[in-house]
Design a protein that fits this description.
Elements: H1 6-26, H2 30-36, E1 43-48, H3 55-58, E2 66-71, H4 81-94, E3 98-104, H5 108-117, H6 129-137, H7 145-166, H8 168-175, E4 181-188, E5 193-200
Parallel strand pairs: 1-2, 1-3, 3-4
Antiparallel strand pairs: 4-5
Amino acid sequence: MSQLPLNAAEGLINANEEWAQSIIKDNPNFFKDSATRPQTPKVLWIGCSDSRVPPAVVTASMPGDIFNHTNIANQFHSFDDNANSVLSYAVDTVGVEHVVLVGHSVCGGVIAAIKAAAEPNKPTMRWLFPLVQLVRSLDLRGLSEDEAVNKVVAANVFRQVDNLCKSKPISAAWAAGNNVCVHGWVYDLATGRLRELIVRSI
């Protein structure tokens, strides 16, 4: 059975020990409080699983600040019970006030979808198929590879925000007067900056 090289895995454990000690030094009761009090994050982050875009790190957040869900190419599919369960729990139980859908530059999932869209006789896996369909609906002619990827990344954020707003958890929240805001952001790997493309609410 394959496993991470021991040095990589052990490095994470060692780094965790150093991190925990640094937190305790600044706030001795932090972990005790985390374990005995309910979580109250105000933000649900739905992003890409790309290791270069860790939500807490790029927003300088602490444990408990962000409720998060990630997948390849930051998709929100109506048929995805996992994502819908996360959204429902975040809105109905945790009480988040903002849902942010975050795409990023140089997204491997987007690049794969662009390549798959150019091969109409080779259907991609089910997960990326909606993204492949989106790519095929866009005019990418005359664009460089980087320009095409950036255009699809942005279009994907708009599409997933639309999917979120049509979902049962958000529709029900809005119908009940719960003004949860749904945001669409893009993270630029080259600058480390987040940019808002759209925000929707009641």
